[in-house]
Write a structure and sequence with these properties.
Elements lengths: L16 H18 L2 H14 L4 H25 L3 H8 L2 H34 L8
Length: 134
């Protein structure tokens, strides 16, 4: 068992084309999963609907997202721990539990509950299920 203060050398990087491609492969898969609906659907829709004046929001968001992703990967490669464990060291675990819960609740759960509630209210007022026109 290694102590926390003991230094360990990083493994040697792969040499040659084939081992390098084998090492890059899983990273490319993870990078492709990191591109979400915001980059591919929401920002182009926003630009078409509201004009190119809001393009700066996409640029700032992508720069912040890239910087956070690079630093998170560096921490994980250096310490061998997920970035969330680093956040847990910054304060009390209960504080982070509430923070992560709110960060999940506000953008994910709250809009879903609002849509379901609005559908139920519209059904009660209309006396039938709402019709969605395509």
């Amino acid at each position: 068992m290694k102590s926390k203060t003991e230094k360990v050398e990083l493994p040697t990087p792969p040499k040659g084309l084939r081992p390098s491609l084998a090492a890059i492969g899983p990273g490319l898969i993870m990078a492709s999963l990191a591109i979400g609906a915001g980059e591919l659907v929401l920002f182009p829709t926003m630009i078409v609907k509201h004009g190119p004046m809001l393009m700066w929001i996409a640029i700032v968001g992508c720069i912040i997202q890239a910087a956070l992703a690079v630093e998170s990967m560096r921490y994980t490669a250096y310490c061998g721990q997920p970035i969330h464990q680093a956040y847990m060291k910054l304060g009390k675990p209960l504080m982070w539990a509430w923070t992560w819960s709110l960060l999940l609740f506000i953008p994910v759960m709250w809009p879903g509950w609002a849509a379901i509630s609005a559908t139920a209210v519209a059904s009660a007022i209309l006396g039938r299920p709402p019709h969605i026109a395509c």
